[in-house]
Amino acid sequence: MVSAAVGGVVSEQGQADVEIVARVAALDIGKAELVCCVRTPGPAGSRRRVQEVRTFSTMTRSLTVLADWLAGLGVTRVVMEATSDYWKPPFYLLEAAGFEQVWLVNARDVKHLPGRPKTDKLDAVWLCKVAERGMLRPSFVPPEPIRRLRDLTRYRVDLVGERNREKNRVEKLLEDAGIKLSVVASDIFGVSGRAMLAALIAGERDPQTLAQLARSRMRTKLPELREAFTGRFTDHHGFLLARMLAHIDAIDADIAVIEGRIEQLIAPFAQAVARLDEIPGIGVTAARAVIAEIGLDMSRFPTAGHLTSWAKFAPGVNESAGRSKGNGATGHGNRYLARVLGEAAVGAARTDTFLGERYRRIARRRGKKKAVVAVGRSILVIIWHLLGDETTTFTDLGSTYYDTRGGTQRAIRNHVHALHALGYQVDLRPAA
């Protein structure tokens, strides 16, 4: 039986008359073992492909044997699905072994056909057949220096999150004891707040004495502080509070060490960090996190649109029969990058810049959430240009860009419409 295929004809032997990768391997990876399928050309003059499937342990010694076997067969491309973190050991080992095309592919691109039996062996064979016909595209995996930096910046984010959670536990503990310090003080972990908490742990219960520990501007709130410290704080609360504050201090120390290590690894990229720091909403910490997530080689993303699409900061398209379906949702991308861009967009919204005005205009019409995504996308486009060309410099268009880009008449029309929306009747007369 012969069936038509896109770009060629498939014969009984499964051979397609299309350009295929001659020697390709595919890995179906689990935690303890992986299944490797290799497809290579058959004997001279034969159209049949030779296929071999083997199972290996995911221990390093076994993975070394796998690399030697693939090198002996002359395999030029190795593909594997992004399965949890289990893909990392074979990917890094094969990369270090000198294989130039080690591809990590999105599992959604290799979705198993419905109705077919599913086993590790069949998955590996299917992945190999799809890969040899060039029907897959590799996911972005940054080089090793960027991966190390990424590990540190992500761990720092996790530590900051854990510190915030522990601070929330402290506030809940004080509420349980009837201590309303957080009502009076905006930051109970400032200098005054820590002094008061330390006194509580030491056994001090007198509201007057505790309130007198306030410093600087907090001393203007002494009556409120005396009222806030009137509660039922016991030794039990003191024991828990001491453990929580010790945990917070330990996390602070770990964050400081991590930040010192980040500074060492980011040193070769200091110029790129400084250029990104010029963008409204992007600070040094955010610039480091962005570089850790997308790297410096923008050739992986042919256009700024490719980068925003990969980061899921571009609206999705769902159209059929000339009608747009759905709400243009962006989808879920790199959550660490999305966090940085979201915070940068909120920061830029408070500035008197082009990005700040863009946020305010979109927020009025579409809401704050859509405005954050739109400004985050704009920031990502700027980042792509700055990292893609070292000669490119950032120039702010200014908050009046939208009013002036269409000329004086457009600016007049916009202001008149705004006054009409506020309920005013406008009568324009040229100034003398």
Structure report:
The protein is α/β, with parallel strands linked by helices and 432 residues long. Among the domains are: 16-132, Ribonuclease H-like superfamily/Ribonuclease H (Nucleotidyltransferase, domain 5, 2-Layer Sandwich); 145-267, Helix Hairpins (Orthogonal Bundle), CATH 1.10.287. 51% of the residues lie in helices and 10% in strands. It contains 17 helices and nine strands. It has helices at 60-72, 88-96, 120-132, 144-176, 181-184, 191-202, 207-211, 222-228, 235-266, 270-276, 284-294, 304-310, 335-349, 354-366, 368-388, 401-404, 408-421; strands at residues 3-5, 8-10, 24-29, 33-41, 49-57, 77-81, 101-105, 319-320, 323-324. Strands 5-4-3-6-7 form a five-stranded mixed beta sheet, with helices on both faces. Strand 1 (3-5) and strand 2 (8-10) form a beta hairpin. Helix 13 crosses helix 14 (354-366). The longest helix has 33 residues, at 144-176. The N and C termini lie far apart (89 Å). Residues 1-16 have low confidence and may be disordered.
Largest sheet geometry: 5 strands, mixed
Series of H and E elements: EEEEEHEHEHHHHHHHHHHEEHHHHH
Total number of beta strands: 9
**Model regions low in confidence, pLDDT < 50 over at least 5 residues:** 1-16
Query: What's the CATH architecture of one domain?
Result: Orthogonal Bundle
Gyration radius over CA? 30 Å
Shape: extended
Q: Give helix % range.
A: 40-55%
CATH topology of one domain: Helix Hairpins
Sheet-strand content, in percent, reads 5-15%
CATH class of one domain: Mainly Alpha
In which order are the strands of the major sheet placed?
5-4-3-6-7
Structural class: alpha/beta
Distance between the termini: 89 Å
Average of the residue pLDDT scores: 87
Query: What is the tally of helical segments?
Result: 17
